[in-house]
Design a protein that fits this description.
- The structure is a single chain.
- This protein folds into two domains: 1-72; 96-177, no CATH class.
- Helix content is 83%, strand content 0%.
- It has helices at 3-29, 31-38, 42-71, 88-126, 129-136, 140-174.
- Helix 1 crosses helix 2 (31-38) and helix 1 (3-29) packs across helix 3 (42-71).
């Protein structure tokens, strides 16, 4: 993953965190407004939330991009103090391994998010109405926290799967398996 991709991913996460915190704050400090939004269609506040997420993410991306330009785009891996200075090939291989690790982390987070969204779609589409109404009757922070926990578990599980698949692919390529 290059710095540009990292900035995009960070900007999306900043936007998502801001939206989540905003919904928590709305429920905490303006529960009447939150309840009135519950009476409207999700097709009204859903796209509005998505647009706001995009705007916040775009602003965060521009800030991160500006900060990256000021800091310089050094892609060299960090060398620990006291460690002998490695050769150029070692630095390239270490940098490639770090990029593969970062790709797997991003892939795990993205897959975890996809599984979370898919799980909510299944729940809202196929579960009995009684059960969906019971979930909707709970405070929003409860199912938001449950979604975040599910996302974290799914992301970590996906990351482990991606790392093992990469290791198996490299072993096959080297002919050790």
């Amino acid at each position: 993953m290059n710095r540009q991709d990292g900035n995009r991913f960070c900007a999306l996460m900043i936007g998502f965190a801001a939206i989540t915190i905003g919904w928590f704050a709305l429920e905490t400090y303006a529960p009447d407004l939150a309840d009135s939004l519950g009476d409207t269609s999700p097709w009204f506040y859903g796209p509005g939330t998505l647009i706001l997420w995009g705007v916040i993410s775009a602003v965060a991306f521009l800030i991160l991009r500006l900060a990256s330009r000021r800091a310089g785009d050094s892609e060299q891996p960090i060398i620990a103090p006291g460690e002998p200075r490695p050769g150029r090939l070692t630095l390239i291989l270490r940098g490639e391994a770090a990029r593969q690790l970062e790709r797997d982390k991003v892939a795990g987070l993205t897959a975890g998010f996809s599984f979370t969204v898919a799980a909510w779609l299944v729940v809202l589409s196929y579960f009995p109405t009684r059960w969906v109404d019971a979930v909707g009757g709970q405070p929003p922070w409860l199912y938001s926290v449950a979604s975040i926990v599910f996302w974290a578990i799914a992301a970590n599980a996906s990351y482990v799967v991606f790392r093992k698949a990469r290791a198996r692919t490299e072993a096959n390529r080297d002919g050790t398996v």
